Amino acid sequence: MQIYLPIAEVSVNVILLLGLGTLVGVLSGMFGVGGGFLMTPLLFFIGIPPAVAVATQANQIVAASLSGLLAHLRRRTVDFRMGTVLLIGGIGGSAVGVEIFATLREMGQVDLLVRLSYVVFLGIIGALMFVESLNAILRSRSGAAPARRRHTWVHALPGKVKFRTSGLYISVLPPIAIGFLVGMLAAIMGVGGGFVLVPAMIYLLGMPTKVVIGTSLFNIVFVAAFTTMMHAMTTYTVDVALAVLLLVGGVIGAQVGTQIGLKMKAEQLRIALAGLVLLVCGKLALDLLLRPDELYSIAPVIG
User: Where are the transmembrane segments (predicted)?
Assistant: First the structure.
Protein backbone atom coordinates (compact mmCIF):
# COMPACT_ATOMS: atom_id res chain seq x y z
CA MET A 1 0.00 0.00 0.00
CA GLN A 2 1.47 3.31 -1.11
CA ILE A 3 1.14 6.67 0.66
CA TYR A 4 2.05 10.09 -0.71
CA LEU A 5 4.27 12.23 1.54
CA PRO A 6 3.39 15.90 0.91
CA ILE A 7 6.61 17.51 2.19
CA ALA A 8 8.99 14.90 0.75
CA GLU A 9 6.90 14.85 -2.47
CA VAL A 10 7.36 11.10 -2.98
CA SER A 11 5.19 7.97 -2.61
CA VAL A 12 6.40 5.14 -0.36
CA ASN A 13 5.14 1.79 0.92
CA VAL A 14 3.37 2.03 4.30
CA ILE A 15 4.44 -1.46 5.44
CA LEU A 16 8.06 -0.66 4.61
CA LEU A 17 8.01 2.51 6.73
CA LEU A 18 6.36 0.71 9.67
CA GLY A 19 8.99 -2.02 9.44
CA LEU A 20 11.86 0.48 9.40
CA GLY A 21 10.39 2.26 12.42
CA THR A 22 10.09 -1.00 14.35
CA LEU A 23 13.67 -2.00 13.51
CA VAL A 24 15.05 1.30 14.73
CA GLY A 25 12.91 1.10 17.87
CA VAL A 26 14.45 -2.27 18.71
CA LEU A 27 17.93 -0.75 18.36
CA SER A 28 16.96 2.15 20.60
CA GLY A 29 15.86 -0.14 23.41
CA MET A 30 18.87 -2.46 23.07
CA PHE A 31 21.70 0.04 22.80
CA GLY A 32 20.40 3.31 24.27
CA VAL A 33 20.70 5.11 20.94
CA GLY A 34 18.05 7.03 19.08
CA GLY A 35 18.58 4.89 15.98
CA GLY A 36 18.77 7.84 13.62
CA PHE A 37 22.25 6.81 12.45
CA LEU A 38 20.53 3.86 10.77
CA MET A 39 17.09 5.28 9.93
CA THR A 40 18.28 8.44 8.18
CA PRO A 41 20.47 6.56 5.63
CA LEU A 42 17.64 4.04 5.11
CA LEU A 43 15.30 6.91 4.29
CA PHE A 44 17.90 8.15 1.77
CA PHE A 45 17.94 4.70 0.17
CA ILE A 46 14.13 4.59 -0.35
CA GLY A 47 14.08 8.03 -2.01
CA ILE A 48 13.33 10.49 0.82
CA PRO A 49 15.19 13.81 0.26
CA PRO A 50 18.03 14.18 2.83
CA ALA A 51 16.70 17.50 4.18
CA VAL A 52 13.30 15.92 4.92
CA ALA A 53 14.84 12.70 6.27
CA VAL A 54 17.03 14.58 8.76
CA ALA A 55 14.28 16.85 10.08
CA THR A 56 11.51 14.23 10.22
CA GLN A 57 13.67 11.49 11.68
CA ALA A 58 13.99 13.49 14.91
CA ASN A 59 10.28 12.81 15.58
CA GLN A 60 10.82 9.07 15.43
CA ILE A 61 13.84 9.39 17.72
CA VAL A 62 11.69 11.11 20.37
CA ALA A 63 9.07 8.33 20.40
CA ALA A 64 11.49 5.39 20.28
CA SER A 65 13.77 6.90 22.94
CA LEU A 66 10.86 7.85 25.23
CA SER A 67 9.48 4.34 25.04
CA GLY A 68 12.87 2.89 25.96
CA LEU A 69 13.38 5.53 28.67
CA LEU A 70 10.17 4.54 30.45
CA ALA A 71 11.44 0.98 30.75
CA HIS A 72 14.71 2.22 32.31
CA LEU A 73 12.88 4.57 34.68
CA ARG A 74 11.06 1.59 36.16
CA ARG A 75 14.45 -0.01 36.85
CA ARG A 76 15.94 3.24 38.25
CA THR A 77 18.89 3.14 35.86
CA VAL A 78 18.81 6.83 34.88
CA ASP A 79 21.23 9.45 36.26
CA PHE A 80 19.00 12.55 36.12
CA ARG A 81 21.72 14.96 37.25
CA MET A 82 24.14 13.80 34.56
CA GLY A 83 21.34 13.80 32.01
CA THR A 84 20.45 17.40 32.85
CA VAL A 85 24.06 18.58 32.48
CA LEU A 86 24.32 16.82 29.11
CA LEU A 87 21.01 18.41 28.10
CA ILE A 88 22.30 21.93 28.78
CA GLY A 89 25.02 21.44 26.18
CA GLY A 90 22.68 19.53 23.87
CA ILE A 91 20.14 22.33 23.54
CA GLY A 92 22.87 24.83 22.64
CA GLY A 93 24.45 22.46 20.13
CA SER A 94 21.10 21.76 18.49
CA ALA A 95 20.36 25.47 18.00
CA VAL A 96 23.76 26.01 16.37
CA GLY A 97 23.39 22.89 14.22
CA VAL A 98 19.99 23.94 12.85
CA GLU A 99 21.42 27.31 11.78
CA ILE A 100 24.32 25.59 10.00
CA PHE A 101 21.89 23.17 8.35
CA ALA A 102 19.63 25.99 7.14
CA THR A 103 22.56 27.99 5.76
CA LEU A 104 24.05 25.07 3.81
CA ARG A 105 20.60 24.08 2.53
CA GLU A 106 20.22 27.50 0.99
CA MET A 107 23.62 27.00 -0.65
CA GLY A 108 22.56 23.58 -1.99
CA GLN A 109 25.29 21.72 -0.10
CA VAL A 110 23.32 20.08 2.71
CA ASP A 111 23.07 16.63 1.05
CA LEU A 112 26.84 16.30 0.75
CA LEU A 113 27.33 17.59 4.31
CA VAL A 114 24.96 15.00 5.76
CA ARG A 115 26.48 12.06 3.90
CA LEU A 116 30.09 13.04 4.64
CA SER A 117 29.25 13.62 8.31
CA TYR A 118 27.86 10.09 8.52
CA VAL A 119 30.91 8.51 6.93
CA VAL A 120 33.39 10.38 9.16
CA PHE A 121 31.62 10.05 12.51
CA LEU A 122 30.34 6.50 12.05
CA GLY A 123 33.74 5.33 10.82
CA ILE A 124 35.66 6.77 13.78
CA ILE A 125 33.19 5.85 16.51
CA GLY A 126 32.48 2.40 15.11
CA ALA A 127 36.16 1.48 14.83
CA LEU A 128 36.98 2.66 18.37
CA MET A 129 34.00 0.86 19.89
CA PHE A 130 34.73 -2.35 17.99
CA VAL A 131 38.37 -2.53 19.09
CA GLU A 132 37.59 -1.75 22.74
CA SER A 133 34.67 -4.16 22.93
CA LEU A 134 36.67 -6.94 21.31
CA ASN A 135 39.46 -6.42 23.85
CA ALA A 136 36.92 -6.53 26.69
CA ILE A 137 35.50 -9.84 25.43
CA LEU A 138 39.00 -11.34 25.09
CA ARG A 139 39.87 -10.23 28.63
CA SER A 140 36.72 -11.81 30.05
CA ARG A 141 37.38 -15.12 28.26
CA SER A 142 40.99 -15.24 29.47
CA GLY A 143 39.90 -14.59 33.03
CA ALA A 144 41.87 -11.35 33.29
CA ALA A 145 40.60 -8.78 35.77
CA PRO A 146 38.66 -5.91 34.20
CA ALA A 147 40.52 -2.66 33.89
CA ARG A 148 40.01 -0.34 36.84
CA ARG A 149 38.86 3.20 36.42
CA ARG A 150 41.81 5.54 36.06
CA HIS A 151 41.96 9.22 36.78
CA THR A 152 42.47 11.14 33.54
CA TRP A 153 42.55 14.80 32.53
CA VAL A 154 38.77 14.86 32.90
CA HIS A 155 39.10 14.47 36.67
CA ALA A 156 41.49 17.42 36.92
CA LEU A 157 39.10 20.01 35.45
CA PRO A 158 37.37 22.62 37.67
CA GLY A 159 33.65 22.84 38.42
CA LYS A 160 33.28 19.38 39.92
CA VAL A 161 29.85 18.00 40.82
CA LYS A 162 28.92 14.75 42.53
CA PHE A 163 26.79 12.42 40.40
CA ARG A 164 25.56 9.92 42.98
CA THR A 165 23.71 7.56 40.66
CA SER A 166 26.84 7.14 38.52
CA GLY A 167 29.21 7.19 41.49
CA LEU A 168 31.24 10.02 39.95
CA TYR A 169 32.73 13.29 41.16
CA ILE A 170 33.84 15.12 38.01
CA SER A 171 33.72 18.51 36.29
CA VAL A 172 30.52 19.50 34.47
CA LEU A 173 32.57 20.86 31.55
CA PRO A 174 33.16 17.53 29.71
CA PRO A 175 29.46 16.50 29.89
CA ILE A 176 28.38 19.92 28.62
CA ALA A 177 30.88 19.70 25.73
CA ILE A 178 29.73 16.17 24.87
CA GLY A 179 26.11 17.32 24.99
CA PHE A 180 26.89 20.24 22.67
CA LEU A 181 28.44 17.91 20.09
CA VAL A 182 25.50 15.51 20.32
CA GLY A 183 23.06 18.41 19.84
CA MET A 184 24.85 19.52 16.67
CA LEU A 185 24.82 15.97 15.30
CA ALA A 186 21.08 15.71 16.02
CA ALA A 187 20.38 18.86 13.99
CA ILE A 188 22.74 18.20 11.07
CA MET A 189 22.55 14.41 10.73
CA GLY A 190 19.05 13.64 12.00
CA VAL A 191 20.36 11.35 14.76
CA GLY A 192 19.87 11.13 18.50
CA GLY A 193 23.64 11.10 18.93
CA GLY A 194 23.63 7.94 21.03
CA PHE A 195 26.42 6.38 18.96
CA VAL A 196 28.64 9.22 20.27
CA LEU A 197 27.00 9.72 23.66
CA VAL A 198 27.10 6.11 24.86
CA PRO A 199 30.83 5.46 24.28
CA ALA A 200 31.69 8.97 25.54
CA MET A 201 29.89 8.36 28.83
CA ILE A 202 31.55 4.97 29.26
CA TYR A 203 35.11 5.68 28.18
CA LEU A 204 35.52 9.43 28.75
CA LEU A 205 33.34 10.14 31.77
CA GLY A 206 33.76 6.68 33.31
CA MET A 207 30.05 6.05 33.94
CA PRO A 208 28.96 2.47 34.81
CA THR A 209 27.32 0.69 31.89
CA LYS A 210 24.13 -0.07 33.84
CA VAL A 211 23.12 3.63 33.96
CA VAL A 212 24.56 4.74 30.61
CA ILE A 213 21.74 3.56 28.37
CA GLY A 214 18.92 5.05 30.44
CA THR A 215 20.76 8.36 30.86
CA SER A 216 21.53 8.48 27.15
CA LEU A 217 17.85 7.99 26.29
CA PHE A 218 16.87 10.75 28.75
CA ASN A 219 19.14 13.21 26.96
CA ILE A 220 18.12 12.07 23.47
CA VAL A 221 14.39 12.54 24.12
CA PHE A 222 14.69 16.24 24.93
CA VAL A 223 17.41 17.11 22.40
CA ALA A 224 15.53 15.39 19.57
CA ALA A 225 12.27 17.12 20.54
CA PHE A 226 13.97 20.52 20.54
CA THR A 227 15.64 19.76 17.21
CA THR A 228 12.31 18.82 15.65
CA MET A 229 10.76 22.08 16.82
CA MET A 230 13.67 24.13 15.47
CA HIS A 231 13.58 22.42 12.06
CA ALA A 232 9.81 22.88 11.83
CA MET A 233 10.13 26.62 12.48
CA THR A 234 13.23 27.36 10.37
CA THR A 235 13.64 24.83 7.54
CA TYR A 236 10.01 23.63 7.19
CA THR A 237 11.18 20.11 6.31
CA VAL A 238 9.23 18.04 8.86
CA ASP A 239 6.85 15.64 7.08
CA VAL A 240 4.06 14.78 9.55
CA ALA A 241 2.75 11.79 7.58
CA LEU A 242 6.21 10.22 7.46
CA ALA A 243 6.79 10.99 11.15
CA VAL A 244 3.57 9.28 12.30
CA LEU A 245 4.37 6.04 10.47
CA LEU A 246 7.88 5.96 11.91
CA LEU A 247 6.55 6.76 15.40
CA VAL A 248 4.16 3.80 15.47
CA GLY A 249 6.87 1.30 14.60
CA GLY A 250 9.43 2.96 16.87
CA VAL A 251 7.33 2.76 20.06
CA ILE A 252 6.61 -0.95 19.56
CA GLY A 253 10.20 -1.81 18.69
CA ALA A 254 11.74 0.02 21.67
CA GLN A 255 9.93 -2.16 24.21
CA VAL A 256 11.10 -5.31 22.44
CA GLY A 257 14.67 -4.00 22.22
CA THR A 258 14.79 -3.19 25.94
CA GLN A 259 13.92 -6.80 26.83
CA ILE A 260 16.57 -8.13 24.42
CA GLY A 261 19.21 -5.77 25.82
CA LEU A 262 18.63 -6.97 29.40
CA LYS A 263 19.53 -10.52 28.36
CA MET A 264 22.84 -9.60 26.73
CA LYS A 265 26.19 -8.78 28.33
CA ALA A 266 27.47 -5.20 28.12
CA GLU A 267 30.44 -6.23 25.94
CA GLN A 268 28.17 -8.08 23.54
CA LEU A 269 25.89 -5.05 23.23
CA ARG A 270 28.78 -2.71 22.49
CA ILE A 271 30.43 -4.92 19.86
CA ALA A 272 27.08 -5.52 18.15
CA LEU A 273 26.45 -1.77 18.01
CA ALA A 274 29.99 -1.17 16.70
CA GLY A 275 29.51 -3.72 13.92
CA LEU A 276 26.21 -2.13 12.91
CA VAL A 277 27.75 1.36 12.87
CA LEU A 278 30.62 0.19 10.64
CA LEU A 279 28.19 -1.58 8.29
CA VAL A 280 26.13 1.57 7.74
CA CYS A 281 29.31 3.64 7.35
CA GLY A 282 30.61 1.30 4.66
CA LYS A 283 27.37 1.45 2.68
CA LEU A 284 27.31 5.26 2.73
CA ALA A 285 30.98 5.51 1.76
CA LEU A 286 30.40 3.11 -1.12
CA ASP A 287 27.48 5.21 -2.40
CA LEU A 288 29.67 8.32 -2.36
CA LEU A 289 32.50 6.61 -4.26
CA LEU A 290 30.53 4.70 -6.89
CA ARG A 291 29.48 6.36 -10.13
CA PRO A 292 25.70 7.00 -10.04
CA ASP A 293 23.43 5.47 -12.67
CA GLU A 294 22.23 8.97 -13.57
CA LEU A 295 24.75 11.79 -13.50
CA TYR A 296 22.03 14.44 -13.32
CA SER A 297 18.74 14.46 -11.46
CA ILE A 298 16.03 16.97 -10.64
CA ALA A 299 15.29 17.15 -6.91
CA PRO A 300 12.25 18.91 -5.45
CA VAL A 301 12.88 22.20 -3.63
CA ILE A 302 11.60 21.83 -0.08
CA GLY A 303 10.21 24.88 1.67
Answer: 12-39, 85-104, 116-138, 172-205, 211-229, 236-257, 269-290
